[in-house]
Amino acid sequence: MSTLFAYAIPAAQLLPAELPLYGCPVPAGFPSPADDHQQDPAFDLKSHLFRNPASTFLARVTGDSMTGAEIHPGDLIAVDRALVPRDGHIVVAVLDGEHTLKRLRIRGMRVSLEAANDLYPTLELLSGAQLEVWGVVTHVVHALEGRPAAQSLNEWRLRAR
Amino acid sequence: MAPNVYALVDCNNFYVSCERVFRPELVGVPVVVLSNNDGCLISRSDEAKALGLRMGEPYFKARPFLEQHRVRVFSSNYPLYGDLSRRVNLVLGQFSPEVEPYSIDESFVRLAAPVQHRPDYQALALAIRAAVLQQVGIPVCVGVAPTKTLAKLANRRARHVSGGVLILDSPESQAMALAATAVRDVWGIGRRQAPKLLAADIGTAAELAAATEGWVRRNLGGVVGVRLWRELRGEPCLSWHPRPEADDEAEGRRHSVTYTRSFGQPQRGQPVLCEAVATFAARAAEKLRRHELAAHLVTVLLGTDRFAATTEGATRTAVIYLPQATQDTSTLLAAARRGLAQLYQPGAAYVRAGVLLSGLEPPGQPQLDLFTPIEPARLQEQQQLMRTLDSLNHRFGRDAVRYAATGTRAAAWAGRNGFRSPAYTTSWEELWQVK
User: Fold this and answer.
1) What one-character-per-residue DSSP string does B279-322 give?
2) What pTM was estimated for this model as a whole?
3) Same-domain pairing of A44 and A74
4) What is the extent of the structural domain holding A27?
5) Is residue A14 in some structural domain?
6) Are B435 and A16 an interchain contact pair (Cβ–Cβ within 8 Å)?
7) Number of A:B CB contacts under 8 A?
8) Is A102 a catalytic residue?
9) Which residue in B has a C-alpha nearest to residue A67's C-alpha?
10) Does B347 touch chain A (CB under 8 A)?
């Protein structure tokens, strides 16, 4: 049962907010041997995954323009502002006062933002225009069983009970 | 070679800048942030300042003007501001193991001077500024000087310098800055002291620095005044803890109450730290009540020895958000203890701790909301209890009556905040969304 438990804790620690920690309900009445160790500060998914905790922000994806890159609506992404965007990076860019998720293409002087979905055209940047990149996407949290990766806290609590 | 050099890093229009991180369309347009319950203006963008909007202006009065000029209006979003403040301090930790948050949007950074050559503080300050802007998205000004008081003064002037950075590392540059600073704008000079100084023909910081020590001792509050005077002359006073309210008065607002102290010897045990933090929180709460304010944010800081610094720096901070602003000691104690629990690492030797209360507002506005967890009657009881506590301690000496550090649960209710932006970084429900 301790492997299940390993998934239950980090989800609560992904955000700096105070989220209550619930131990995994033990189905057959055995006390979980992991319970004594759940507060180990080294066991923190956030610090394990994110090289730059100060500049890494989580966002929920609402659009479907990057499904070809396995980023689906409802997924969580981690965006790092400290990384220098390069050709091929998936980035959050600022376009017309909005944030948009696209793949950055830099070919010589030509800069474009490419969707990973045929329904969306590639956006070529006019020469001389300044592209503002908010941050570089470093991780995607996506659940395999077909539901959105991260349910809301309330949903999570209900499941944990 | 100066053994100590301090940088004061101050976030520009902090609350507005926080809103802009997640709303790029707000860049370049006038934006204001309102105090809780949408009472008055507490943060203005440069564009809003240019329109003549004043700090503290009541919202209901300014409303027609705001609408006419299409000013974007936001309710205060303390979970967001608290988290970004924590991140700014993390970035500052990349430059020095010693970062001391002074208020929600200001921190002192002690820069260790390299021994071998004269360090380029201008380049360092610009690097700090660029790093905070890139990593968190917040523009800052940086003032660098050999004492905290001079760093504060440098920062004030840095706001009007291109590049947002001002270095006062030579006697000449310090003399120039002191001569150009009115004495009422000096950190630690209260509203009541400024007229007294003016009457004695002391109008600028330079004139105060040129006064004799005896005069300062007699006329500027004894030892405390002498410390200020020394700091102004470039001699750092480590025991210098100016009242944060002093400079906030000068700026027409008060935005934090701090209580930070170094321990006599390194502390490792959680119970001891818990007691220390509880004591600091109780003291800060007293200060808060003395100034008739309530706090939304409780920042707890723990510092290890700077030579034992980890990659995250020697000072770590946790920020706890209280949905309802409070001046109640027990509520603040509970929050401080939760902050400590987030920070505490077994085995680490801590040499400093502190509690910082910010997101300040007048207390006890009756909450006529359906979901108010604290009924007005209960709130009144709380206030009565605090008044009794304070008057007992006033009569019988400090700590005559004190808390056994027991906590109450924080309220889950959010104040009236019709225009609040989502808690982009601290709530699953309100997480930043990207298309």
Assistant:
1) HHHHHHHHHHHHTT-EEEEEEEEEEE-GGG-BTTBSEEEEEEEE
2) 0.72
3) no
4) 2-49
5) yes
6) no
7) 91
8) yes
9) B435
10) no
